[in-house]
Design a protein that fits this description.
single chain, alpha/beta, Rossmann fold, 6 strands
Length: 236
C-alpha cells in the first residue's frame, strides 16, 4: 500500500516538473505600463445609462415628436429607446399584426447603435387606447370592466380593462406573446422586454383604472406567460 502511494506521488511530481519546463519554453511576456487618457467622449454602457421614452401613454408623445432624421447621436450615454405600446396597436384584428409601430423606430435607432425595449400593455386610460387590450378580445367572450374618472387630468372618461384572470383573455394574450416572441425573442436590436400585461399602464396595479384587487398568483401567471415564450431576450 505504501509502495503504491509512493508511485502516485512520484507521478504527480513528474507531471508538475514537465509543466514547469513547458512554461519555461514559452516566450517571455513583456510588461508595459499603459496610462489611459480621457478623450471626453460619452460612454455607452449596455443595459445601463440613459433611456429615451419614445412611446408612453400615447404614440404622439416624447420621442415620436423628434425629427425623422434625428438619431440622437448627440446624447452621450444613451443606450436604449423604450416603447410602451398598447396591445391593440400591434394586433388590431385577431391574428393580423401591424409591426410598424415597433419596427419603424427600432430600425431607425439601431443604425446609431441603440437598442429598443418594449412594454406591451393591456390597460390604459390616456391617449388613443380606449381598449388597450383589443376590443375583439372582449367580443370573443373575455370579461371586461368599464371604468372612468374625469377628475384625473388627461384621463379618458370611459375606458375598458380586462379581467386579468379571465381564461379567454389569458388565452388570447398567450397567442399574442407567442407572436411577439417569434419576431423579437433574441433579436439583436432588442435590449429587453418589460412584463406589462397586468395592471393599468402595465405597472402591476389598478389604482388608475378599476381599483380591483388581484391575488399575487395573477401576477405570477402573467410573468410565467412571458417566460414561456421569451427564452433569449431578457425580461424586465
Amino acid at each position: 500500500m505504501r509502495f503504491e502511494r509512493g508511485l502516485r506521488y512520484c507521478a504527480i511530481i513528474a507531471i508538475y516538473a514537465v509543466g514547469i519546463e513547458l512554461m519555461a519554453e514559452e516566450s517571455v511576456v513583456e510588461l508595459r505600463t499603459v496610462t489611459p487618457h480621457d478623450n471626453q467622449a460619452g460612454l455607452r454602457n449596455p443595459g445601463m445609462g440613459f433611456c429615451l421614452y419614445y412611446y408612453t401613454n400615447f404614440t404622439a408623445c416624447y420621442g415620436a415628436r423628434l425629427a425623422p432624421t434625428d438619431l440622437l447621436n448627440d446624447w452621450p450615454g444613451l443606450t436604449t429607446v423604450y416603447m410602451r405600446i398598447p396591445w391593440c396597436l400591434v394586433e388590431p384584428e385577431e391574428g393580423k399584426f401591424d409591426w410598424s409601430t415597433v419596427d419603424t423606430p427600432m430600425q431607425r435607432f439601431a443604425e446609431g447603435g441603440l437598442k429598443a425595449a418594449f412594454r406591451f400593455t393591456c390597460s390604459e386610460n390616456f391617449g388613443e387606447a380606449e381598449y388597450a387590450t383589443p376590443k375583439w378580445v372582449k367580443d370573443a367572450g373575455a370579461k371586461f370592466y368599464e371604468h372612468g374618472n374625469p377628475e384625473l387630468p388627461g384621463r379618458k372618461e370611459t375606458a375598458w380593462e380586462p379581467d386579468f384572470d379571465n381564461p379567454m383573455f389569458l388565452e388570447k394574450l398567450d397567442h399574442f406573446l407567442a407572436a411577439l416572441a417569434a419576431r423579437y425573442d433574441g433579436h439583436p436590436d432588442v435590449a429587453f422586454v418589460d412584463i406589462g400585461s397586468f395592471g393599468v399602464w402595465g405597472e402591476g396595479h389598478t389604482w388608475g383604472s378599476t381599483g380591483r384587487i388581484y391575488p399575487s398568483e395573477t401576477i405570477e401567471h402573467h410573468i410565467a406567460l412571458h417566460a414561456k415564450h421569451f427564452k433569449n431576450t431578457p425580461l424586465g
